[in-house]
Amino acid sequence: MSALKLRIKYTKLGSLRFIGHLDIMRFFQKAIRRAKLDVSYSKGFSPHQMISFAAPMPLGMTSEGEYFDGEFESVTTTEDMMARLNATMPPEIQVLDIIELPDNAKPSMAIVTASDYYIYKNEECENDTIPQLLQALPAFAEKDKVEIVKKTKSKEELTDIRPLIYEIKEYKDGVYMLLASGSKDNLKPELVVEAMCNEAGVPFNRYDYRIHRLETYMGEKEELQPLSASGTRF
Fold first, then answer.
1. pTM of this structure
2. Any idea where the DUF2344 domain is (predicted)?
């Protein structure tokens, strides 16, 4: 009997924004063991759990739309496995959904195409430029070209990021943005915030803002779906 493929959606909130991706991986490996879930292990000299993560976030961001895939020898129900995992974890990191994937499903990391974000004031900082950004937002959203200097390890180059901004608008007391994400095209939300600061004529300071991922998507720009749409609850 082949292993069952599951996709697990979870949050990463509060102070856990300072926890890196490798620590999150180790955290879930331990949580799966504590929850006594029948996870599959690789073969060989040093077996490891068969889990892989979708689109790891940089430090400093929170999220309610994180995913990882896992292979399991047996399962119970979505509700039971969620409850067992959540019982082992703090409130800042909780499982929101578990779905079973078809046998031919591609790994989550291979199908991510977009993510959306909520940008708002960092309450730990006195400086608040959100009002200026919101004032400049209508003109910014209408721009045909948004050029910014993108830095890599080897060079800096002027890049037009406008094609990778799928949607941007006012949201609650901040800014909503839907951006290209994944292995093919990937735009960091802080680059968009920096471009907005340039448009508004205010200095950019990454720590003035909180960046919260709302969801991670697959599919084409016009037909985006959450990664959880790949399968069904069980």
1. 0.92
2. 5-189
